[in-house]
Each structure stands twice: as C-alpha cells, then as structure tokens.
C-alpha cells in the first residue's frame, strides 16, 4: 500500500459578486444647499433633503438675478421650519442686498408663516438665505420664485451693451467663444460693467458672474467689522479652471477651531470647512495664529463661495483680498453647448422685454462682434475637439453651478464634464476613470502593488501620491510610471472577511496637480481591494488549470477578475519530532501505524495572516470510498490529534491512525486531503477552530 503525499492548493470559486469595487471618494452631496439663477424668470427651490427633514448647521444661499426684473414673488407650497418669536434658530430670509435689515414676517420667516400669502421683494436681484442651528429640524420648504419683469426693459446693462437675453445666455452656459470673448474684454459695454462691478469694498456679500478679478473687503474695513455678520460672496465663470485668493490684510478674531469669527472658501455652501485648509481666522502678522490667511491659496472649479461669519462678541480689523480667476487656455465649452444654451436661455426668458433687450444689444454689435471674433478664431472648435473625446457618444448635460459640480468627478464647464489627460469619462458621462492600463493593481500572496502611468498624474508631487498611511508614498518604477507597495498589515491596510473570502482594502490618495504655478486638479481618493479565497485543499484532484497560484493584475477601475489563492504543501514524517520525512511509497505504509502529517505554506504568509486546518478526508479512489477524519473537530475512532495547535502562521502538525478500507486492494494508493482556512490573525469566524469542552 502507498500513501500519496499531496500538494495543498487553493480552490478557486467564481469571482466575487460583491467585495469592494474601486470608486472615487468625491466628498460630494446630493443635497443642493444654494445655487445661482441668472436670467431665469421662474425658479423652484426646496430645502436640502426635502420632503424629509433638513439637516443641522446649514447656511444655504440662492442668488437670483434678472436685468429686467422689477420685483420677485415668492409663493410657498410647503413651509415648516423650527418656530420661535424672532426666527433666531432656523429661518428663511429674502433680500435684495445683504445690507437690507431682516424683519420677521416681512422678509424673514420660520414656523409656518410663509404659507398664508405670497411675498414680493423689489429689485432685480434676490438673495435667499436658509439657516439652521444645531438642534431641532423639520420638513423644510418648497417655494416658487417668479421674476416680475418691466413691460419695457431699459437697464444699464442694455445701454452698456449687455442685454438681458445675452446675459442669461452667457450665465446659463454660453460657449468658449462667448466666455473667451467676455474674458478678453468682450465689448466696451462689458468693460464698463466690469470696471464698475469688480469690487465689493465694504459690502457684506455679493455676486460676480463672469468676472476675472474681484477685490473684497470685510464691512467697515480698515475699521472693525460688525458683529453677527453672515456675508456670502459668489463667484462664477464658465471658463474658470480655479480661483486664487491673495490676502493683502487679514485680521479676524482667533479661536482654535475658528468657531467665533471666520472666513471660509467653498465650492458649495454645504461643503465641509476645515480650519487652515479652507476656513481661516486669526491675524496674519501673528506666527501663533496657525489658521490665519497669510499666503495666496488656490481653489479648483468654476464656482467659489466666500463666507464671512462673525459672532456677537469681539470684532477685529477684518480683511482685504483679491480674488483672481485662472482661465483654461482653451475654454472647455463647445459650440453645441453654446447654441443650445443660448437657444434655451433665450426661449426660457423670452418676453417683449428680452426681445427688446436682445435687439438693442445686438444692434450695438458689442456682444455680436465678441462672439463672432471668438467663434471665428476657432475657440469653440478647438475646445470641442479638446473636450474629452473618450466619452464616445455619451454626452450628459451638467449643471455646473448646482453646488455639486454638476455631478462631475473632475472638471465641469459649460454644462459638460471633462477629464484630465490619461483619464476617460465613464459610461455615465460624469465620472472620470483612468484610461485602460494607466493605473493597475497587482494582488499577490505578499499584498498589493499599484502602478500608475505618469501621464495621468502630471503636476502631482510624488509625496502626495500615497496610500491611507501617508508614509507609504510612490516610488519611481521607471521613467514612465510610479509604484506603491503594501503588505497585509502596513500602509493603513484593512483586512476583512466574508463568505469564505477575505479582502485587503486600502485607498490610493492623489494630491493637487500644479502646472505652471496653478492648481489644475482636485485631491482624489480611489478605493481598491484584493480578494482572496481563504479555502485551500490538499487533493490531487484540485490541481487543475483554473487554479490561480500567481499574481493577478487588473485595472484599478475594474473588479478583480478572480480570487487569489494560496499554495500549501502536505508532508509526512517518521515520528512526532517532525525532523525526517517518511517514504510512504512502495508499500511502506502499514494500516494501524500512526501517521504524522505537517501542512505549511509553500511561501511564507504575511505577518498579519494565519491559517487553520479545518477538515481532513482519507479516500481510496479506486473503490470510491472515503472517510472524514477531521471535521473542525477530530472524528471519533480515528485517533486524530493536533500536535500543538489547530492554527499557526508557519505550520500545523497532526497525527492519526493509518487505515485502509475493507475492499481496498493490497497495493492501493490512499489519498489524504485537508482543507486549509487562510485568515486575518485571530479571526475566529474565519479560522473555524474546534472548541470541544
């Protein structure tokens, strides 16, 4: 009789239907807390999360503008906000400019007070501010705001060369031609408007659409600002790649978390504010005030909100800033976007006032010449060709100023999402992914390795390409690629176990890209994982071609094609000292004698892994007879016993009494197979150990 010493290998199942798929952590929200509506005659606004309760600590601003608006009518279809006599806790307010006093029941509302009758606010600009404190929340509101237009529009914008129709078209997502024309100094009328409107000195908030440089100061500067201020400045430009904020003077009451007074910069008003990152306080002349704004900072996107808040206590000298728009070399808005947005804007705001305004402005030739000049220069065409071709036929309309970047994971401009080089738009036309082969994960028995083509990370500092643990940063694989390596227990790697599989999980972090001294991309986080089949089996019948022993490499955007397997060896020894291997071939095995087996990985396991032996079976394949001798616990009558422990990181040793079946041939070969569970350390659910009392 012979015993076959068999190789312990892994059983490969189907690729996991679940697991952790790579994704972008975009740090965004589906709630819209604010927005900008230029040239629109009717707008519906709802509180974030409506009809469910709104959240605590909201500070939302909606800005509505129309050159031909005489007034605005607010009609409430649903209104339920926390009530108190002065509307101090939660409130919804309406005003033409932030200096207008708020009067409860007149332009500031809470409870259910707005339901009874529509409210009218005069002027061609309306600011809607919703604030909630950190306590009770309610169902919120759903309102419709209607612009009441002059019968004949005769605005300053018309005489200067900007009609209401063109302004609406420009703001709604004009074209590279329009935007480039505006940016270059569009017309004499535009220049006059820009020079008149490009500062907000002493004002508590304002809206600047299409401007390339704006000066803002705290109210009262250089004297002290007032108490209980809540000022919001909104900046938007279709062709903006980013905004640079340059402080000339900065002195805002200091507190460690900037909870008293603060100046914050956000892409949307519900975006998190982090002291020293996008929230500032303190005195720039004091080295101890770490959250003071001292150096120029850059924020990506084509919309920026500057929010200044002061409490009811101490005030300071305030701030003096310059905000500069950094424009794309070629504005990523195409001619189709231009014509569709102009058309929809003209039709949506079509009235005798618009017609008159359009006619007046067009006849002056101001905008027309700028558009024509920009279009003839090829700006639209080149932008069209440079806008991401990789999306194929997938073109999704995006509202870039919705507070959610239009749903785009990277760039949003002129209602179109686009991607950096070596990235491509996904099937939804909004989320960017690495191009195939540009970023790959290699999973192995030692951990995971990420390789990224340098073309996808132009301008990103090497140290800012790292895993969850920032010390695990990229190294140069070669002239064309970066590499990051992690084991099972370093770099912030997490191990999880579910349904006979365990996963290695980590996050690839990509820092800001800086090109030509300008920040041209956001920070990104991409989760990735390696999946392992934790069941290994010692059986000659398992040695099939579909068993994966080697490494698996796949795109970081894709799911892992199959679980990775571990390889183990099964050996028999002459005694329980486990020093000399036994030769059990050619009839050397005799029934009734003890057999001493040892199972060990063919390659050392990572320090954070261990394995257990869970089930062993003796089989005579010639007669199709088998007997289980270990089923989590030893089976009675087999004298099966572990030498030390059932689990270990290096080897598990056991013994049992040898036997054959009554109908076995004298020279039969007996197969012994054992299932092995490979697990994160101390994972009892995975190891499945015997706990007999």
From TrEMBL:
Residues 33-148, 204-326 form the CUB domain. Disulfide bonds join 33-60, 204-231. PROSITE patterns: CUB, ZP_2. InterPro entries: CUB_dom, Sperma_CUB_dom_sf, ZP-C, ZP-C_dom, ZP_dom. Keywords: Disulfide bond. One of its GO terms (molecular function) is serine-type endopeptidase activity. Residues 160-197, 335-385 have a biased composition (Low complexity). GO terms for cellular component: extracellular space. The lineage of its organism: Eukaryota, Metazoa, Chordata, Tunicata, Appendicularia. Gene3D superfamilies: Laminin, Spermadhesin, CUB domain, Zona pellucida, ZP-C domain, Zona pellucida, ZP-N domain. Residues 160-199, 335-390 are annotated as: Disordered. Coiled coil: none annotated. This is Oikosin 6E protein. Residues 442-693 form the ZP domain. SUPFAM superfamilies: Spermadhesin, CUB domain (SSF49854).
